[in-house]
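hey
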């Protein structure tokens, strides 16, 4: 499939007024860099990117949130990030959920914001509990925030609320 066509399909998907806030797994041949360049060139969206980093001992989602925190100039977010670093396991879930809501509120605009998860891994590398937190946090935001990630791990099935958008066949 032609990459220009796939970029056009991505644009159609993102411009669709029916697209709701949520997690979108893109089945495409486009690279993260091609998607990033394309969305950044379109002034219709606020573009934010964060890296999904493989880890042997840590939590992929926590690392993703910490990376987004560094893009926010907000004292409340910084304070929550610092609490996350020292939190015991009992408090961590509450802090992560609160941090996700605060970050999304920070990036929300009167238009549509796109948060692009970059890296060699995809949403399937994030624990189900953390995907639930991100999905619930997206429901707390009035503006439309679309979280996209390209499908890289084809062996792992995705959870129900992740919408598998195939750019190859999107009409």
């Amino acid at each position: 499939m032609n990459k220009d066509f796939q970029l056009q399909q991505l644009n159609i998907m993102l411009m669709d007024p029916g697209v709701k806030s949520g997690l979108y797994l893109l089945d495409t041949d486009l690279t993260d860099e091609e998607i990033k360049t394309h969305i950044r060139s379109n002034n219709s969206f606020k573009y934010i990117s964060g890296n999904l980093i493989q880890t042997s001992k840590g939590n992929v989602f926590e690392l993703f949130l910490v990376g987004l925190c560094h893009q926010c100039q907000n004292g409340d977010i910084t304070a929550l990030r610092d609490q996350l670093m020292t939190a015991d396991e009992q408090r961590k879930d509450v802090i992560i959920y609160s941090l996700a809501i605060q970050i999304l509120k920070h990036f929300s605009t009167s238009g549509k914001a796109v948060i692009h998860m970059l890296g060699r891994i995809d949403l399937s590398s994030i624990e189900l509990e953390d995907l639930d937190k991100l999905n619930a946090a997206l429901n707390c935001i009035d503006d439309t925030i679309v979280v996209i990630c390209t499908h890289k791990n084809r062996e792992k099935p995705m959870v129900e609320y992740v919408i598998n958008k195939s750019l190859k066949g999107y009409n």
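The mean pLDDT is 86. The radius of gyration is 16 Å.
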